[in-house]
């Protein structure tokens, strides 16, 4: 159907089909989809979530979509599509205050997904989940990084830093850079106060470099240099 009509007409059709009016998800409608099956799943999930929100008297707010998608991802058979939509709403619309408030439960759900899926067959899902975890951690306060719970969540992101899958490795690196750049501040003396996760990141990368004998080693070194310089 998409090939028979203009891009503008298709976006209008998709918007009407999903009945979604939240602009956060325009990317899901506008972007080119080489995988038509994935596109179908995303539109189907978005339509179902939108209907659920409206049936419950909701106003299609980012908070409502965030809560609905985070709940749905545990039980849906279309986890890749749900994770993609969750990534969109977390990165574009959900306020940091809500991400801090829901950090524990959200992280538990996302980490469970990482632990139960294979990088060889579920790369798209893992990429979205890593981005979600990155956004979740980026929203945390400076002081919260002194807690073991936050450092534990971060360890699950770090373990993909040398993934053999380039796309997963890239998502992991992007999330780490995003996290480390989120809390850099300048003190009254003009000194830069670095992110409290810098030391944990350094320790993990040094450990991986010492053990690394596979192909991604040179890529890992480039990543380390990109952080330093």
UniProtKB/TrEMBL annotation:
RRP12 N-terminal HEAT domain ranges (all copies): 37-189
Domain of life: Eukaryota
Pfam families, alphabetized: HEAT_RRP12_N
PANTHER family (alphabetical): ARM REPEAT SUPERFAMILY PROTEIN (PTHR48287:SF1)
UniProt protein name: NUC173 domain-containing protein
Organism: Schistosoma curassoni
